[in-house]
Amino acid sequence: MHRYANPARFLSIARPLTGWLFWPGLALLLLGSACGLFVTPADYLQGETVRILYIHVPAAWLGMAGWSGIAIAALMQLVWRHPLAGVAGRAIAVPGALFTALCLITGSLWGRPTWGTYWQWDGRMTSMLVLLFLYLGYIALGNASARQGQQGGGVSQVTAIFGLVGAINIPIINRSVVWWNSLHQGPSITLRGSSIDTAILWPLGPTLLGFSLLFGAIVLMRMRAILARNKVEARMQRLARG
Amino acid sequence: MQAWNFIVAAYAVTFLGTGAVAFAAWRAMRSAEAQAEGLSKRT
Fold first, then answer.
1. Average pLDDT of chain A to the nearest whole number
2. Helix or strand or coil: residue A190?
3. Residue numbers in B near A231 (CB within 8 A)
4. What is the C-alpha to C-alpha distance for residues A142 and A25, in angstroms, rounded to an integer?
5. Over the stretch A3-26, which tens digit does the pLDDT of each residue have?
6. CB-CB: which of B2, B4, B35 is closest to A232?
7. This prediction's pTM
């Protein structure tokens, strides 16, 4: 990992990788969504609304994966002082918050015709809402770090600690449907298999992979923007000093 | 038909939200990199 601590070396990989992630990601996303909307059959119990599965599950996965990424970046910043870890944390926060919000919105839109309500203060929905607030807090702290001229465009140590401590919410979200009674269904996709019929499940693969690749491309674009702004600021300071 | 209203709303919000964040990230990256390049050419 320290091989890519040098921004120039990182950028030599990030520049071509951005397009390689973005375009296949978009194609997979459109293909999977089209198949999920028009090819797969309706569910025998939920009817047509099951089609929200193909965007709701990737949004939930990326909301949680994003914070896991922030926690790993925070650990790398605090323990190994990796110079790009804080930049990565800041770059992940906005798309992570977006997908957490999308998970909540698509879940509500799925819940209304299925459960008869948009919202229920149960373990799964509440812990996911807490994750959204954690993201908003992290973004605010990250922006404050940038305004205070945090070296390298990264985040302060306090922000990194916040990112690490907030990771406690991830296993709570994951186990919430097992620990507490909930309107939300139990785990239907596990390492041991899936309780969803293959005829309905298969477009989830392309949408999951497509959204993940797009997420990666957005993170790389945001990291490149932070590093370029950092370069401009450093040069302006050198020019001002003469 | 009522179910499709919820499906269309869910997909529209998802695609608009993802598109907006991707576009904002791309625009910020392009403008920051152009500024950095312009500055390094000048100096």
1. 91
2. strand
3. 36, 39-40
4. 28
5. 667 778 889 999 999 999 999 999
6. B35
7. 0.93
- Per-residue pLDDT at A7: 79
- The DSSP-derived string for A64-118 is HHHHHHHHHHHHHHHHH--TTHHHHHHHHHHHHHHHHHHHHHHHHHHHHHHHS-S
Taking CA atoms, what residue in B is nearest to A219?
B25
Sign of the C-alpha dihedral, residues A78, A83, A88, A90?
positive
A85, A234 in Cβ contact below 8 A?
Answer: no
Distance between CA A165 and CA A161 in Å, rounded?
6
Cβ-based contacts of B22 with chain A (< 8 Å): 22, 214, 217-218, 221
CA distance B8 to chain A (A): 9
Coil, helix or strand for A189? strand
ipTM: 0.93
**Domain ranges, ordered by start, for chain A:** 52-183+200-236
Inter-chain CB proximity A221 and B28 less than 8 Å: yes
- Contact assignment for B10 to A101 by CB distance below 8 Å: no
